[in-house]
């Protein structure tokens, strides 16, 4: 299920081949190993939970499942990340902001990669993340109908202080088109 732009959950059909493509792309791009611990905290009815559950299971990484509604509690999440040596986690930007406001977040030193999706990632939040954690931050974007996300962007230190966070490049087997107000393709580098 996804809330999309309406804010109301709706069912979306996602083909198995799309999910498999997504999982194989993630493994090729981010390379989980048996040393990784992935936190599954998204409610199982939502799209992000698919990769949180299956990516560690197909790669031999450790899957750690948060308690029900634990995804809403920054104190609990910081404790769980430290206790279970979590290396990989996903946050929607608004929850990442709440998490970074929790003083214990800075103690989550086992984190190596954090993914954000579901909302626009503000530049200010990207910069707060870099000030708080020594981990990679990756911005993902896309509709559930395209198997959760269609683009990815690794946030780089050189971007610090810029307002916008890019949505990035397409994942495997995906095309992205930027259109103008009349729904016509725009040239590379043109805002659409």
Provide a quick synopsis of the model.
This protein has helices at residues 16-30, 48-59, 74-83, 93-101, 123-132; strands at residues 37-40, 62-65, 88-91, 113-116, 136-141, 151-154, 169-170. The chain has 192 residues and is of the alpha/beta class.
Notes on the protein architecture:
There is one protein chain. The protein is of the alpha/beta class. The protein has a single domain (16-170), classed as Rossmann fold (3-Layer(aba) Sandwich), CATH 3.40.50.980. The protein has five helices and seven strands, in the order αβαβαβαβαβββ. The chain has helices at residues 16-30, 48-59, 74-83, 93-101, 123-132, and strands at 37-40, 62-65, 88-91, 113-116, 136-141, 151-154, 169-170. The strands form two sheets. The chain has a five-stranded mixed β-sheet with strand order 3-4-5-6-7. It has a two-stranded parallel sheet with strand order 1-2. The protein is globular. The mean pLDDT is 91.
């Amino acid at each position: 299920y996804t809330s999309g732009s309406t804010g109301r959950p709706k069912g979306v059909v996602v083909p198995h081949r799309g999910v498999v493509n997504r999982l194989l792309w993630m493994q090729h791009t981010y390379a989980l190993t048996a040393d990784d611990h992935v936190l599954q905290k998204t409610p199982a009815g939502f799209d992000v939970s698919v990769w949180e559950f299956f990516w560690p299971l197909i790669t031999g990484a450790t899957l750690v499942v948060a308690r029900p509604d634990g995804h809403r509690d920054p104190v609990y999440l910081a404790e769980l990340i430290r206790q279970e040596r979590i290396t990989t986690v996903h946050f929607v930007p608004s929850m990442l902001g709440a998490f970074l406001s929790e003083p214990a977040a800075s103690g989550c030193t086992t984190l190596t990669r954090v993914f954000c999706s579901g909302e626009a990632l503000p530049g200010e939040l990207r910069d707060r993340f870099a000030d708080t954690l020594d981990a990679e931050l990756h911005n993902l974007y896309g509709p559930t109908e395209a198997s959760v996300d269609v683009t990815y962007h690794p946030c780089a230190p050189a971007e610090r202080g810029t307002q916008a966070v890019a949505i990035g490049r397409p994942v495997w087997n995906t095309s992205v088109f930027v259109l103008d107000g009349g729904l016509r393709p725009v040239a590379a580098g043109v805002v659409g």
